User: Fold this.
Amino acid sequence: MNRARPAATLLVVRDGVDGIEVVMGRRPPGGPFGDVWVFPGGAVDPEDQAAAPDDETAWRLAALRETWEEVGLALTDPAGVPIPPGTGSVHRRMAEAGVGFAVSRLVYLSNWVTPVFVPKRFDTHFFVTDADGDLFSGDELAEVAWMSVESVLTRHGRGEYPMIFPTLSHLRYVSQFSQVDDLLVEARSTDIIPAIEPRRFERGSTTELIVDNDPRFRT
Assistant:
């Protein structure tokens, strides 16, 4: 059965001179989604599940762990405490040092499920949080940067910054807000978050993806 694997993605946002900025990274060429721009994130690993009391916390831990691994932002509790160096489970090392990932800082934003016609499927929880700090690219991303949402959308419209459909949909959603506080207030007030499984729509010779069960991302 083509089951969707749990995954998590984190939109890290801050207020910038030209509106809201978000952390994005470019996948290396040649690999999965080569040269595509993404938010930090990835699959929920066994170490995330082992460190979590429930599935929702495991999603949050995965989002925070992937953000630290991919772009170098360590969102910890207590704030500002560095992640202990070493090998093996980062969650174990942190617990031994009396520090944890700041799971309460994440606001659950949306749930996207890869359509059944795609061989490799993910059940992805998207979160958003406000933060600031310097970035560095690890092994999984060719480059990382704080990017103005408006500028990314403009350049994407010119054929630059290739992105997958959920990434583009979230950037369009964030572009409706002029300040991070407004975005977070709206996100926190959203009580019902349906699972979004885009469906295919044939328009002439082109195939489009349609979202019709979440008004925030409806196309």
